[in-house]
Amino acid sequence: MKILVLNAGSSSIKYSLFAMADQSTLLTGLIERIGESQSVHRFRLPGSEPQATEKIIVNHQQALQELFDTLSATGSIREGELSCIGHRVVHGGEYFREPALIDPDVVRKIASLIPLAPLHNPANLLGIKESLRQMGDVPQVAVFDTAFHHSLPDYAYRYALPNALYKEQGVRRYGFHGTSHHYVAKQAAAFLGKALEEVNLITLHLGNGASVTAIENGNSIDTSMGMTPLEGLMMGTRCGDIDPALHFYLSRTLNLSLDAIENLLNKSSGCKGVCGENDMRTIHQMADAGNDHARLALAMYAYRIKKYIGAYFAVLGRVDALVFTGGIGENDHWLRQHCCSGLSALGIAIDDEKNLAPFHPCAAISSGDSPVKVLVINTHEELEIAIQAQTCLRQLNNKP
To answer: What's this model's pTM, rounded to 2 decimal places?
Structure first.
């Protein structure tokens, strides 16, 4: 069985092709700057150097045709070999608690959730519609970032707002990065030699977007992102937790529109707002060169994470492992050390040599006497989408 995973953005399509017999990657690629004067298509076959072509790709229809032509030209897919296409969808609202075989009703429901994810769901839906148009004979499954967090109890997902806002407008905590949190939770359980249902974990997905999840007996019971991906940790360009009255202050004192405030909090805040950069590697370079704003950004970033670690320890009571993942979580040894420093009272102690050592795909960086394991795990959201799509198809095929 071969499954293609698509992650469609407003001007890009990221994709991966998997052979599910051994879960190996057959091809990965990214088509970006769709609709601009010059688009770029980068792709890589296993064991080969990356390839890149520049051409004009005017829309997602042409981009997907380019993608399918590449699958054929590289011999990655032959006639009839593609068993399924799995689509990443950011927001599933309260409709989707698990992956869904895409049909007209699923498409309508995803479209109805656009107000909850106006920056993501429209692009995800565009990729779905165009993929259905070009490959309608292939089963297609939507996998939702929010689905893993549907095990949150009501006291964790409800906001202290009038009931009508929840019942009529769907205002609640949904959480995001669920595909990544679910994947690394399974990997952590396997590393610990336990069933997923037996472990309590705090998982930190740290990239340009960042979130932390409390996992009890394999289920998400709290998570830092909320109704949107803006809440929670400080991020690359997003503010994370702030005083909600700040919106009123900005409107009154600076006469900013709602759109301007939304743009400021999503795209001009976080690390970028504090030091002018959102790439963590650049921020470290700036801090090493003596830039006080960069040093402050790093200190704030680590401090916010540490606060959530403490809070989720209180929620869980017992923690088997603290897990770092995502581009920053997997690669930034300074951040891991500073997030965990001073937490010996919680049973967390890092081995400095292990923290500096390269790893793949999973390693423990905690000291030998640390009651709580500290793990660094490579996340693989695309593979998790493929696995969930495969499971969805099997369940449907086994129905009486």
So the answer is: 0.94
